[in-house]
Amino acid sequence: MKTRIFTSTMILIACAAALPALAGGPGHAAGPQKAPRAAVTVPTLSTEAAATLLWMREEEKLARDVYVQLYQRWKKPVFSQIATSEQRHFDALGVKIRTFGLTDPALPVAGQFTDPDLQAAYDDLIASGKLSYVQALTVGATIEDMDIRDLQEALEVTTDPALKTTYQNLLEGSKSHLRAFVRLLRALGVEYAPQYMDELLFDAIVGV
Fold first, then answer.
1. Residue 25's pLDDT is what?
2. Is 19 inside any structural domain?
3. pLDDT < 70 regions, the chain
4. Which of the residues 49, 155, 165, 198 could staple to 45 if both were Cys, CB 3.0 to 4.6 A apart?
5. CA-CA distance, 98 to 92, in Å (whole number)?
């Protein structure tokens, strides 16, 4: 029995070795073998950096959703214009989430959030912003104030160069949005006091 198994095994090995040459047909040598495809490497983030990215994605959704609602209430172009910009921010972070193979926390329904703290913040900001136009502008400044602080923290915990570039671009956009809201408030005789960022940084962004 062992002799039969050994003989059969040797026959199979000989046939397997001959297959590449036979595949080319009589008189033909085996063709060149295709190189194996290179494995696709998915970049990774630290646990903290990944959690920060997911938070920022929902925070940009919060900004967009609030501004859409405030535009519907007050019909002022500042809200629709900045909502469009926030959509771009939101989309940019969505691309990064896919790049790093993370699960997107952003829910498809406007005004709904996975993170309970952001849900509570959204509800409070909407209720406040619908009270008056001045209060709506203050809500806008508050969102950008918070966003700037969080983007600065995101830059500190992130080492991936491409993601840092995205955060830096978003940070510059948030600074521009903050200036717009503060300028409109000052035109109405109202001064916004920063709630999240350092006051020196606030003054450097918007001017004294």
1. 45
2. no
3. 1-42
4. 49
5. 10
Task: Read off the CATH number of the domain in which 118 is found.
Answer: 1.20.1260.10
Q: Rounded distance, CA 86 to CA 64, Å?
A: 5
Structural domain including 89 reads 47-206
For residues 204 and 208, give the distance between their C-alpha atoms in angstroms, rounded to a whole number.
8
Q: What is the pLDDT of residue 36?
A: 57
Residue 204, token pair as written in the block:
């450097």
Residue 101 domain-assigned (yes or no): yes
CA angle 115, 120, 124 (to 5 degrees): 150
Residue 72 domain-assigned (yes or no): yes
What is the number of domains present in the chain?
Answer: 1
CB atoms under 10 Å from CB of 208, counted, come to 5
Pairwise CA distance, residues 48 & 140, whole Å: 27
Record the tokens describing residue 124, joined without a space: 């409070």
Measured distance CA(184)–CA(187) in Å, rounded: 5
CB-CB contact of 166 with 92 (8 Å): yes
83, part of any domain: yes
